[in-house]
Amino acid sequence: MKKLLAIFGLLLTVLLVAGCGTSETVETTEEVTADAVGDEAIVVYYSATGNTKKIADDIVAATDFPSFEITPEEPYTDEDLDYNNADSRISKEMAAEDLDVKLTQTTPDNWENYNTVFLGYPIWNNGPALPMEAFVVDNDFAGKTVIPFCTSGSSGIEESVNVLKEATVDATWEEGKRFAADATPEEVESWLAEIGY
Ligand SMILES: Cc1cc2nc3c(=O)[nH]c(=O)nc-3n(C[C@H](O)[C@H](O)[C@H](O)COP(=O)(O)O)c2cc1C
Fold first, then answer.
1. Which amino acid residue places its CA nearest to atom 29 of ligand 1?
2. Of the candidates 27, 94, 120, 173, which lies 20 to 30 Å from 36 by C-alpha distance?
């Protein structure tokens, strides 16, 4: 009988230890997942005519991440954006050697707290819209992961990402996504799910 009790006791101990082990593993996995996705993400975007803003709003609605809208000191009017007119503001700025776009606020509040930055912008002449280029040049991206998204008439995102990457040497860039101007919230949500958000 004593022997039986001893075996029962041993079995109970083994079961208890195994049980604890399992719950520890679960906790660790949860921590890793939370770190990988992170809640310290921000959606930073520029939008001249509202298309990119709509996508940014869809991301915010789906994730609850905070957002920061880049605003040039001098907003672009439709006339400014007329790339068919060689004398328009945009034609001159695109042709200029130096990027000269001033922003009303260069850096989002608590910028250092964010480890993941969704960066959204329209494509201008196959590249990023100039206010986004100004934002990237003027901020420190060391240690941050960047997830770019854009809207365009038809151009892909690749060339614009190459331009922005050059200004953020210490950042990790994830693959970006180009949306059509009329992309639906469902399209945005399925992209977010694809990349783990
Ligand atoms: C100055 C300018 C240049 C543009 N260049 C391109 C281009 O090279 N390729 C393209 O597919 N669309 C181009 N577009 C179209 C915009 O990328 C598209 O309308 C975008 O959705 C606008 O976004 P927004 O409403 O957020 O400003 C251009 C638009 C403007 C105003």
1. 124
2. 120
